[in-house]
Amino acid sequence: MGNLSSVSAREAVRAFEKVGFTIVSQRGSHIKMRRALISGKTETIIIPNHKHLKEGTLRKGILRAIGMATKEFITLLKK
Fold first, then answer.
1. What confidence tens digit (pLDDT) does each residue in 22-60 have?
2. 40 in the Ramachandran plot: left (φ > 0), alpha (ψ -120 to 50) or beta?
3. Which domain holds residue 12?
4. What is the pTM of this model?
5. How many separate domains does the chain show?
6. Distance (Å, whole) CA 11 – CA 69
């Protein structure tokens, strides 16, 4: 797979922007991103603004919440 342990918040934000997420707000060290779905609903994710995001936070928190595969996220990081 890839190495998710070396992903920073800045890299994660750029990757999620490529699939339609935009930064809505930031409170303290947490960035809120949101995207509109075709059904009219929205998806919201919260990204901790850290130099190194924990792999579990990415995999089990953020990616699982939006139904994105780890491989797909790694591909977005490389673009």
1. 999 999 999 999 999 899 899 999 999 999 999 999 999
2. left
3. 4-78
4. 0.89
5. 1
6. 17
